[in-house]
Amino acid sequence: MDKRPFILLVMVVVGGCTLDKIRCRTDNNCPQGMVCGEGSYCVEPEDTSVKTCWTGDTVSVTAGLYHTCAVLKNGRVKCWGNSDRGQTGNGGVSEFLPEPAYVISLESEVLSVSAGLRHTCALLKNGGVKCWGDNEYGQLGDNTTTTHIEPVSVSNLNAAVKQISSGASHNCVLLENGGVKCWGRNDVGQIGDGSTIHQPLPVDVSGLKEGVEMISAGYYHTCALLKNGSVRCWGDNYYGQLGDNTTISRNEPVSVSNLTFGVRQISSGGSHNCVLTENNGVKCWGRNDTGQIGDGSTTNQPLPVDVSGLNAGVGTVIAGGYHTCALMLAGSVKCWGDNENGQIGIGSTKEARKPNDVFGLESGVKNVCAGEKHNCALLSQGGIMCWGWNAYGQIGDGTGLQRTKPVNVLCNE
Fold this sequence. Notes:
mainly beta; Methylamine Dehydrogenase, Chain H; four-stranded antiparallel β-sheet; 32 strands
């Protein structure tokens, strides 16, 4: 009797492309990282358990281009994913770090972390900032363009920092006095100092020395939410992401039209922005080729428009590279936009121009972050779950497998 494993390869043709589906009888018939699921096909395993070593230990989670970092309650930081420029801060250079590792030389001193394309910055408890990773444009703020695989102090801040936000290769900080400073890449005016000269040290943003409530950096632009509830943006405007009804880039802040009051929170993605309104609804504007605006179209929007079905009930909005997510007041998560790598979290790579419920996150989510093609959620009862593209290990589950549904991040001690 032939005792070879039972494996039947079924070829499904979709839109001219061939997708492989593997039939199975047991998990042993499936590729590594998959199990024999419904219909006797190999599928990604569902992962709903809570990893106890994260429980109650994580303060926040942030996602960069292809890496992710978490701040722990003890003030330390763990990062994972792509570290080709040392952006995970573990003292080495690697394109594939699929499990969390401590950032070295940051001991019990971090309040929050912000991740850029290939660099990372940490806001310290003493109001200072340290950055590490790629420094081609001076984005580490140490007055050099030398890449550092360990954290270095940002110079010339001259005041305590309240918040930090990282773009592709620039950073901005909100000071305790309500002013804003930025540094790093500035070829399209994303620093906001009236020039297009790269800045290896923090400089003041024109006209924003006070009165700012929150900042958010996109890839090549930046926005600020003012204390009066209005919004100003500066930098690249190719897709209308500055919200002034033009596509003219600006090296100084300009007001976003139709948002003169009532904004509670802002988030900048690759080339789009979204805001939380006073009635807990969401408006977005800018690039929309993958439906990241959420209005059901793929037309770029140079002015804020309502996100379909999200006129109320939203707690926080989070803009990623080419997609967007919303953390609802009820603790569930919805996402929309680019889904090529499963970053919408619906168990497939189906198009999503309007908000969709993320599988398995119907309640109990405390915080969400969005990278270019992946997302992570911090659960209120402990644990971190991520989903989307995983070629660099940015999901943190110990594999390089793409995940179209949330899976648990490993919790190495």
